[in-house]
Amino acid sequence: MTRPITGLYMVTDARRPPPVPVETAVAAALRGGVRIVQYRDKSDDTERRRHEAAALVAQCRAAGACFIVNDDIALARAVAADGVHLGRDDGDVAAARAALGLDRLIGVSCYADLDRARAAAEAGADYLAFGSLYPSPTKPESALAPLSVFREARAFTDRPLVGIGGINAGNIAEVTAAGADAVAVVEAISAAPDIEAATATLIDRGFGPAA
Hints:
CATH class: Alpha Beta
InterPro entries: Aldolase_TIM, ThiamineP_synth_sf, ThiamineP_synth_TenI, TMP_synthase
EC number: 2.5.1.3
CATH topology: TIM Barrel
Protein name: Thiamine-phosphate synthase
Cofactor: Mg(2+)
Binding site for 2-[(2R,5Z)-2-carboxy-4-methylthiazol-5(2H)-ylidene]ethyl phosphate: 136-138, 166
CATH superfamily: Aldolase class I
Number of domains: 1
Strand content: 15-25%
Protein backbone atom coordinates (compact mmCIF):
# COMPACT_ATOMS: atom_id res chain seq x y z
CA MET A 1 0.00 0.00 0.00
CA THR A 2 1.22 3.49 -0.78
CA ARG A 3 -0.07 4.93 2.52
CA PRO A 4 -1.65 3.30 5.57
CA ILE A 5 -5.41 3.25 6.02
CA THR A 6 -5.75 4.49 9.56
CA GLY A 7 -7.20 7.49 11.37
CA LEU A 8 -9.87 9.90 10.20
CA TYR A 9 -11.09 9.42 6.62
CA MET A 10 -12.93 12.30 4.92
CA VAL A 11 -15.42 11.52 2.15
CA THR A 12 -16.54 14.37 -0.09
CA ASP A 13 -20.00 14.19 -1.64
CA ALA A 14 -21.23 16.44 -4.43
CA ARG A 15 -24.84 15.66 -3.53
CA ARG A 16 -24.32 17.40 -0.19
CA PRO A 17 -21.71 20.07 -0.96
CA PRO A 18 -20.01 21.97 1.84
CA PRO A 19 -20.58 25.72 2.18
CA VAL A 20 -17.12 26.28 0.67
CA PRO A 21 -15.46 24.79 -2.46
CA VAL A 22 -14.32 21.20 -2.08
CA GLU A 23 -10.66 22.18 -2.30
CA THR A 24 -11.12 24.64 0.58
CA ALA A 25 -12.99 22.07 2.67
CA VAL A 26 -10.33 19.42 2.11
CA ALA A 27 -7.52 21.86 2.90
CA ALA A 28 -9.17 22.69 6.25
CA ALA A 29 -9.74 19.01 7.04
CA LEU A 30 -6.10 18.23 6.27
CA ARG A 31 -4.99 20.99 8.63
CA GLY A 32 -7.24 19.43 11.25
CA GLY A 33 -5.54 16.06 10.85
CA VAL A 34 -7.47 14.01 8.27
CA ARG A 35 -5.24 11.21 6.98
CA ILE A 36 -7.34 9.93 4.07
CA VAL A 37 -9.54 11.81 1.59
CA GLN A 38 -11.99 10.10 -0.74
CA TYR A 39 -13.28 12.16 -3.66
CA ARG A 40 -16.86 11.07 -4.27
CA ASP A 41 -18.69 12.79 -7.11
CA LYS A 42 -20.89 10.70 -9.39
CA SER A 43 -21.91 13.56 -11.69
CA ASP A 44 -21.31 13.53 -15.45
CA ASP A 45 -19.17 16.68 -15.41
CA THR A 46 -15.97 14.92 -16.42
CA GLU A 47 -13.88 18.06 -16.85
CA ARG A 48 -14.76 19.51 -13.46
CA ARG A 49 -14.28 16.18 -11.72
CA ARG A 50 -10.82 15.73 -13.21
CA HIS A 51 -9.85 19.30 -12.31
CA GLU A 52 -11.03 18.88 -8.73
CA ALA A 53 -9.44 15.46 -8.32
CA ALA A 54 -6.09 16.74 -9.59
CA ALA A 55 -6.20 19.66 -7.16
CA LEU A 56 -7.10 17.39 -4.25
CA VAL A 57 -4.40 14.84 -4.98
CA ALA A 58 -1.83 17.66 -4.91
CA GLN A 59 -3.17 18.87 -1.55
CA CYS A 60 -3.04 15.37 -0.09
CA ARG A 61 0.49 14.77 -1.35
CA ALA A 62 1.67 18.00 0.28
CA ALA A 63 0.03 16.97 3.57
CA GLY A 64 1.28 13.38 3.48
CA ALA A 65 -2.30 12.10 3.31
CA CYS A 66 -3.83 9.37 1.19
CA PHE A 67 -6.10 10.30 -1.74
CA ILE A 68 -8.76 7.86 -2.94
CA VAL A 69 -11.23 8.21 -5.81
CA ASN A 70 -14.67 6.73 -5.36
CA ASP A 71 -15.91 4.41 -8.10
CA ASP A 72 -14.01 5.85 -11.10
CA ILE A 73 -10.96 3.71 -11.85
CA ALA A 74 -10.08 5.73 -14.96
CA LEU A 75 -10.11 9.00 -13.00
CA ALA A 76 -8.00 7.49 -10.24
CA ARG A 77 -5.44 6.43 -12.82
CA ALA A 78 -5.53 9.77 -14.67
CA VAL A 79 -4.72 11.85 -11.58
CA ALA A 80 -2.32 9.31 -10.05
CA ALA A 81 -4.51 8.84 -7.00
CA ASP A 82 -3.35 6.54 -4.23
CA GLY A 83 -6.25 4.26 -5.03
CA VAL A 84 -9.92 3.67 -5.71
CA HIS A 85 -12.91 2.73 -3.58
CA LEU A 86 -15.45 0.30 -5.02
CA GLY A 87 -19.08 -0.12 -4.04
CA ARG A 88 -21.46 -2.88 -4.96
CA ASP A 89 -21.95 -1.64 -8.54
CA ASP A 90 -18.50 -0.17 -9.22
CA GLY A 91 -16.60 -3.09 -10.73
CA ASP A 92 -14.42 -5.73 -9.15
CA VAL A 93 -11.07 -5.82 -7.43
CA ALA A 94 -9.35 -7.69 -10.28
CA ALA A 95 -10.28 -5.05 -12.87
CA ALA A 96 -9.15 -2.24 -10.59
CA ARG A 97 -5.88 -3.98 -9.86
CA ALA A 98 -5.20 -4.58 -13.55
CA ALA A 99 -5.80 -0.90 -14.31
CA LEU A 100 -3.99 0.64 -11.34
CA GLY A 101 -1.17 -1.78 -10.56
CA LEU A 102 0.10 -3.35 -7.39
CA ASP A 103 1.19 -0.13 -5.71
CA ARG A 104 -2.28 1.44 -5.51
CA LEU A 105 -4.95 0.91 -2.89
CA ILE A 106 -8.27 -0.77 -3.56
CA GLY A 107 -10.97 -0.37 -0.96
CA VAL A 108 -14.29 -2.19 -1.02
CA SER A 109 -17.63 -1.32 0.57
CA CYS A 110 -18.87 -4.44 2.35
CA TYR A 111 -21.95 -2.97 4.09
CA ALA A 112 -22.81 -5.62 6.73
CA ASP A 113 -21.92 -8.51 4.41
CA LEU A 114 -19.12 -10.62 5.83
CA ASP A 115 -19.18 -12.97 2.84
CA ARG A 116 -18.56 -10.00 0.55
CA ALA A 117 -15.77 -8.86 2.84
CA ARG A 118 -14.14 -12.27 2.82
CA ALA A 119 -14.34 -12.49 -0.97
CA ALA A 120 -12.92 -8.98 -1.38
CA ALA A 121 -10.01 -9.77 0.93
CA GLU A 122 -9.29 -12.98 -0.96
CA ALA A 123 -9.39 -11.04 -4.25
CA GLY A 124 -6.71 -8.66 -2.95
CA ALA A 125 -8.60 -5.66 -1.60
CA ASP A 126 -6.38 -3.47 0.56
CA TYR A 127 -9.07 -2.37 3.00
CA LEU A 128 -12.68 -3.23 3.80
CA ALA A 129 -15.38 -0.71 4.75
CA PHE A 130 -18.51 -1.49 6.76
CA GLY A 131 -21.66 0.56 7.25
CA SER A 132 -23.86 2.38 7.65
CA LEU A 133 -23.09 1.99 11.33
CA TYR A 134 -25.65 4.63 12.32
CA PRO A 135 -28.53 6.30 10.46
CA SER A 136 -26.89 8.44 7.78
CA PRO A 137 -28.23 11.65 6.22
CA THR A 138 -26.00 10.99 3.23
CA LYS A 139 -27.49 7.55 2.57
CA PRO A 140 -30.73 7.36 4.54
CA GLU A 141 -31.80 4.21 2.72
CA SER A 142 -28.80 2.19 3.88
CA ALA A 143 -29.31 -0.82 6.12
CA LEU A 144 -27.38 -0.66 9.38
CA ALA A 145 -24.31 -2.75 10.14
CA PRO A 146 -23.68 -3.77 13.77
CA LEU A 147 -20.46 -2.70 15.47
CA SER A 148 -19.72 -6.39 16.00
CA VAL A 149 -18.93 -6.62 12.28
CA PHE A 150 -15.35 -5.47 12.99
CA ARG A 151 -14.72 -8.27 15.47
CA GLU A 152 -16.22 -10.79 13.08
CA ALA A 153 -14.20 -9.54 10.13
CA ARG A 154 -11.00 -9.56 12.15
CA ALA A 155 -11.43 -13.30 12.58
CA PHE A 156 -10.60 -13.87 8.89
CA THR A 157 -8.56 -10.89 7.71
CA ASP A 158 -5.76 -8.59 8.78
CA ARG A 159 -6.76 -5.94 6.21
CA PRO A 160 -7.52 -2.47 7.63
CA LEU A 161 -11.20 -2.09 8.53
CA VAL A 162 -13.09 1.17 7.98
CA GLY A 163 -16.35 2.26 9.59
CA ILE A 164 -18.73 4.62 7.81
CA GLY A 165 -22.25 5.97 8.07
CA GLY A 166 -23.70 8.50 10.49
CA ILE A 167 -20.49 8.87 12.47
CA ASN A 168 -19.96 12.05 14.44
CA ALA A 169 -18.13 13.36 17.49
CA GLY A 170 -20.68 11.74 19.77
CA ASN A 171 -20.25 8.18 18.53
CA ILE A 172 -16.83 7.94 16.89
CA ALA A 173 -15.26 6.50 20.05
CA GLU A 174 -17.67 3.56 19.89
CA VAL A 175 -16.50 2.79 16.36
CA THR A 176 -12.80 2.77 17.12
CA ALA A 177 -13.39 0.83 20.34
CA ALA A 178 -15.24 -1.79 18.27
CA GLY A 179 -12.13 -2.34 16.16
CA ALA A 180 -12.22 0.06 13.20
CA ASP A 181 -8.76 1.10 12.01
CA ALA A 182 -10.14 4.14 10.20
CA VAL A 183 -13.39 6.07 10.43
CA ALA A 184 -14.97 7.64 7.35
CA VAL A 185 -17.04 10.79 7.76
CA VAL A 186 -19.04 12.98 5.38
CA GLU A 187 -21.44 15.36 7.14
CA ALA A 188 -19.59 15.73 10.44
CA ILE A 189 -16.70 17.30 8.54
CA SER A 190 -18.12 18.92 5.41
CA ALA A 191 -21.20 20.48 7.03
CA ALA A 192 -19.32 21.85 10.04
CA PRO A 193 -19.09 25.63 10.35
CA ASP A 194 -15.40 25.25 11.26
CA ILE A 195 -14.09 22.25 9.35
CA GLU A 196 -10.59 22.32 10.81
CA ALA A 197 -11.86 22.43 14.39
CA ALA A 198 -14.51 19.77 13.75
CA THR A 199 -11.86 17.49 12.26
CA ALA A 200 -9.55 17.94 15.23
CA THR A 201 -12.42 17.17 17.62
CA LEU A 202 -13.33 13.97 15.76
CA ILE A 203 -9.72 12.81 15.92
CA ASP A 204 -9.42 13.62 19.61
CA ARG A 205 -12.67 11.81 20.44
CA GLY A 206 -11.98 8.80 18.27
CA PHE A 207 -8.24 8.30 18.30
CA GLY A 208 -6.96 10.34 21.21
CA PRO A 209 -4.86 13.52 21.29
CA ALA A 210 -1.72 11.71 20.17
CA ALA A 211 -3.32 10.48 16.90
